[in-house]
Amino acid sequence: MSQTMLLLFACILMHSGGGPITGFGIALITLAIGVVMLVGICWQLLDKWIERTRGRNWPTVSAVVDIVSVAFVPDDSLLRYGASTYTPYYLATLTYTYHNPEQQMGDYSRRFGNEDEANAWANSYKGETVKVHVDPNDPTRFVLREEDL
Fold it and tell me: Which of 91, 120, 105, 108 is nearest to 63 (CA)?
């Protein structure tokens, strides 16, 4: 059960007056829903910030982009929650390999609204050398940062 539904259910259970929900009750429910939405937005922003800064001070190794692909993703996740928006996209993925000291493989993906743009972007990296940041404490942890493309 989602947090929003849980809070709504708790507010309804706490309302013991037996009558209709008052303006205060509606305001309380609206506030609870707003807080949950704000926490979700902040969580996404924090996650993106962590992803951007992760590995920036790790040493780099050269990697070669071996495989590029573009896939259509019918993002209907919002439709399941009753929203009227439908935002499909194309996911371009670069798959690269490097040695440190054993061969490692990773990938980097980026969303596009247009298939031609996604293909052009992905194909521009085919066979190219890129920098991959590798965790000096754990060589199995690595990241290709957008700034290094």
Answer: 105
With 0.90 as the threshold, say if the pTM is over it: no
Across 44-66, b (16+ Cβ under 10 Å) vs e yields eeeeeeeeeeebeebebbebebe
CA gap 44, 30 in Å, rounded: 21
Which residues have a Cβ under 8 Å from the Cβ of 26 and sit 6 or more positions away? none
Q: Helices marked H in 54-114 — which ranges?
A: none
Q: For 24-79, what is each residue's pLDDT tens digit?
A: 878 888 888 888 888 888 887 787 677 667 788 899 999 999 999 999 988 765 55
Distance CA 29, CA 43 (A): 21
> Contact at 8 Å (CB) between 11 and 25?
yes
